[in-house]
Write a structure and sequence with these properties.
This protein has 148 residues and is mostly helical. The protein has one domain. The protein is 80% helix and 0% strand. The chain is elongated and about 70 Å long.
Length: 148
């Protein structure tokens, strides 16, 4: 189990880091005229990806139902992203285009939308697997009741 958690952490980290760098680079290209990403942002994204990878281990819990995993994961992930944004001053990049509070609010809705889309995909996969296991179980029961 420990090896699985370590593997899931590093896989989640690689995905989180890659997506975060792409997202930050995209956002910076939209809201600034520089078109470049500072090296300090890469380290900040590294920290955020590490935190998000730890948060994603919530989904490995066998004691929580899927809905609770989802709600806890949403709260912790959104809190981590927005917390890092406030601590690292990401919401100042809007310049005169948006004030910091409006940028924070828009970011929250953007993060929530991305989380919702991801959650729907994960839920569909989870539901599909559950349905497949239930149909296998029914087939197993039918086969054993006929031969038994």
């Amino acid at each position: 189990m420990r090896n699985i958690l370590i593997r899931d952490f590093f896989l989640g980290f690689m995905i989180s880091f890659t997506l975060a760098v792409l997202m930050v680079a995209s956002i910076l290209s939209i809201v600034t005229d520089e078109g470049t990403m500072q090296l300090s942002l890469v380290w900040q994204v590294f920290i955020l990806a590490t935190i998000c990878s730890l948060v994603n281990l919530v989904y490995r819990s066998e004691q929580l139902k899927f809905i609770w995993k989802s709600l806890i994961g949403y709260a912790l992930t959104t809190g981590a992203i927005m917390g890092c944004g406030v601590i690292f001053g990401w919401y100042h990049y809007g310049g005169n285009f948006l004030d910091q509070r409006m940028f924070l609010i828009l970011s929250f809705f953007g993060y929530s939308l991305c989380y919702m889309i991801t959650w729907i995909i994960i839920w569909r996969i989870h539901k599909g697997r559950k349905d497949a296991w239930n149909s296998r179980l029914e087939a197993y029961k039918e086969n054993n009741s006929i031969s038994g």
